[in-house]
Model the fold of this input.
Amino acid sequence: MDRQRRSQLAHADHPIAAPLADDSVARLLDRAVADEADRALDLGCGGGAWLRRLLVRNPAMRAEGVDIHAAALEQAREGAEEDGVADRLVLHEMDAAAFASAHRFDVVLSVGAAHAFGGLLPTLTAARELLAPGGHLVVGDGFWEREPDAAALSSLGATWDDYADLPTTVDRVVAEGWTPVYGHVSTAGEWDDYEWSWTGSLSRWALDHREEPDALDTYKAAAEHRSEWLNGYRGTLGFVTLVLRRSP
Done:
């Protein structure tokens, strides 16, 4: 099974592809959308969960999403049709880091997609070029809740300098010319719900489709991920979502 198909199955019960509860997502969007905002962009939109919620909550807005995976974009289209917002959503199948636009956006989102740009700071640089004056950037990425041990690094396939602690992460963002106007650190409960949903959705699919050629491998992948989380990075990897504006 290809990685994108596996990701779609894993997020069946948790469409937001990050450890964020629905009320946290709603609060972040409320803080990011000014009254006059009418255009939004999601860099690395996946199945379009953020944009769909944004458009439903703000009937006057139009939005664009960028992702490299065709299947995820098709999922976004279908979801937008179900929500009645498809006429206000444009999707681009391309590398988010290569996206350019003749116009600027009042809200730019990139949550859990820093890998597409090579890290958090390059994500900020790319977003700056697309954000309208006075606009808000919503960016989410990992940080170290505590010093990672060998088990955590191994389970994540990470190195110590892939992330920093929370204060250092925020300091780096500020040094790049951004001011946090709101932020949310994912709770242990949000992380647990995300990981149980991820592994549980995959396991459920494998158990319900035992005749499928990929069923056994999918079952094993879910079990491996669950073990890596529980025995590796649980309580070590954190996730912060920041609402940012350009500093003066």
